[in-house]
Amino acid sequence: MLLCCNVSVLRYNTVTALNNIIKPEAQQAPFCSATNSSITRQLAGDLSQHRFTLRHRPKQVVYQLDNDPLVLANIYDAEVRLTCWQRDLDANSLAYVNWLLERGRLLPLRLVASPETLTEHLMQDLPDHPNRSDFIKDVVYLADMFACLFGLEEVGVRLSLLKEAMCPRFHVDRIGARMVCTYAGSATQWLPNEVVDRSKLGRGSNGLDDHESGLYPAETIPNQMRAGDVIIMKGDTWPEQEGQGLVHRSPACTPQAPRLFLSMDVM
Prior knowledge:
Layout: H1 7-22, H2 37-51, E1 62-66, E2 80-85, H3 91-103, E3 109-113, H4 115-125, H5 132-150, E4 155-162, E5 177-184, E6 189-191, H6 210-213, E7 223-224, E8 230-234, E9 247-249, E10 259-266
Parallel strand pairs: 1-2
Antiparallel strand pairs: 2-8, 3-4, 4-10, 5-8, 5-10, 6-7, 6-9
Helix pairs in contact: 1-2, 1-5, 2-5, 3-5, 4-5
């Protein structure tokens, strides 16, 4: 497949691919399943490889939030650090999520699977409930979108019921990109690039809390996603933007107010 270096063409092709995923009829099976893979898997793989070779520096850092899932494809724009699909869960998936919270326990799931095989894994690992299949469809739907965006055969999936903050300090991920969704509870918090002093991350804080170390101005209120929102955020190793990953943290949670948290990584 011949690809053009024109960014608008690349964006158009990826948006077209995602558009196929979000059509109602496409939700019956993964977009990159055997019946659809002859063109789309090649397209997704070629696009992700080619887009990483684009060499242009961002003029300013921006964050894109929209109720249209196609916003996720804009993560490839040089100036974008975060894309967020703002959405509400469907009633059946939400019923399963609430049941898991009431149940109060869920073994952490960590697996590597293709979108085509993920359903089988989740059916084996998640507790049975009349709405389990609806929740699994949503997870597989997100995995298929993530795999298509980055041309992946397999996706690293983590699903956990958290009763304490997983990463309570502001930090950056030492990866290229990650998709996250908080199904229930307080969602991911993040800081805009222009207020962050990156020298205060990690050991640079000298043991002080984030709000005391000078990482960000005292008057800054961190941004926070909503439960159900789907986020793709750049990490510190995104090509041509090394060291400029999104600064974020896990919000506080307790056994009385837990989080059901999903993340997906490039494998």
